[in-house]
Amino acid sequence: MPIDSHHLSRRSFVQLAAGAALGGTALGGCAAGGGRPSRDTPLRILACNHVWSQAISKHLAEFEELAGRRVSMSLLTADQLANSFNVKLNASATDVDVMMLRALQEQLLFAHNGWLADLTDLVSGDAAFGWNDFLPASRERSVTTRKVLTVPVVTERPVLYYRKDLVEGGAPKTLDDLMALSQQLARPRENFFGFVGRGQRSGAVTQWSSFLYSLGGDFTVQGRSAIARPEAIRAYEFYGRLLDRTGPPGVTNMTLEQAMPIFAQGKAAFYVDADAIYTNFLDPKISTVRDTVAFAPFPAGPAGSRPYNIPSWSLGISEFSRLPDESWQFIRWATSQDMVKRLQADGIPGARQSAWSDRATLAAFPPDLATAMQTSSRIGVSIDRPDVLQVGRARDIIGRPLVAAILGEPVAPVAREADAEFADFLVRDNRHREG
């Protein structure tokens, strides 16, 4: 039976934690030296200023009552968080216990550096926690070198946002249909565009990945660069043509912050981006399309519909924490079936299958959005960027042919140059990984 953290008494919570320790699943061995911290020492959580962390912070008093320990949560921007981790973990600092990180962006590097505690025995040896209840793609990305190092808290998929008042017969089912309708509806002289999306060099790679997969390509094949293969070139050319012919001017500089308002202000017919941002289009303060926006799964290409389906944020425990067992108690509570359902009912897409199967929980989302999210969760690819140590550098290399395509330049020669650079990068990245 899953544990309901909302109704769990402090006594039973402590008994449960003690039972886990006696069963050999405690993390006491990873605590740094210096003796056992006093009860006055807070559990320190370093997190991104994100809707999930904002939501869980409202329930911290509940955990403090259960655990008998104060919690200190610091919220930073994603860039500030990455910099803080780099400084603190390089110094083996003990003032961070629970870390909110991007499994696809930082986990491989953190694992390589020995910064994350091994959670394998904890998640697999705790039947009540229900590790198998987490979405398969999310579980897959939580593992590095056969060790579970993080537990996912937020998941993300691309959604096709579209104007239902402009499209007869529903959303386009294929990428070819998306291209045709985008060209048909574009009226650039009237400042109305068929399609808008991210076009900035490295920032566009995540959203482009679904086009790449659905057109039969991948970032690597058998560990080697695949970005100059015919399928990848077709994906570069398709996405570039879509934005070049039907998108707004200046799109090569557009990140989420620039692209999203164009659709929200009713200036585009179609937009592909993360499902997590859907509330922006329902907020009357920033959106003029709240009554006309609709949601659909990612359209199919020659390889079918292959959207990314990833854990965008996860929780891990610092290898240098002096409160490792309390850190696990927090993660166990924050990612329990009950808590995931409670947060997802407030519109935060979690990583548990039980939440996605719960009709009451899904009622938080518009029905067509819930269907699109469920579809992508079932068929999605578990990665939206190269699986490397230096993710930022890899995205920058891969994004160069994308910019050329958007500018209407020949893609193949740029892709071949980027492919050679990426191939060399992969060799060096593997050397660093093995060193």
Summary, kept brief:
This is Extracellular solute-binding protein. The protein has 18 helices and 13 strands. It has 435 residues and is an alpha/beta fold.
Textual characterization of the structure:
With 435 residues, the protein is α/β, with parallel strands linked by helices. The chain folds into two domains: 10-155 and 311-379, Periplasmic binding protein-like II (D-Maltodextrin-Binding Protein, domain 2); 158-307 and 388-434, 3-Layer(aba) Sandwich (D-Maltodextrin-Binding Protein, domain 2), CATH 3.40.190.10. The protein has helices at residues 10-25, 51-57, 60-67, 78-90, 107-112, 120-124, 136-141, 175-185, 205-214, 230-246, 256-264, 324-334, 337-344, 353-356, 359-362, 367-379, 391-406, 411-434; strands spanning 43-48, 71-76, 98-101, 143-144, 147-148, 151-156, 158-163, 193-196, 220-221, 224-225, 268-274, 293-296, 310-317. Strand 4 and strand 5 (147-148) form a beta hairpin. Helix 9 (205-214) crosses helix 10, helix 10 (230-246) packs across helix 17 (391-406) and helix 17 runs antiparallel to helix 18. The chain is globular, with a radius of gyration of 22 Å. InterPro entries: Bact_solute-bd_prot1, SBP, TAT_signal. Pfam families: SBP_bac_1. It comes from Nonomuraea cypriaca.
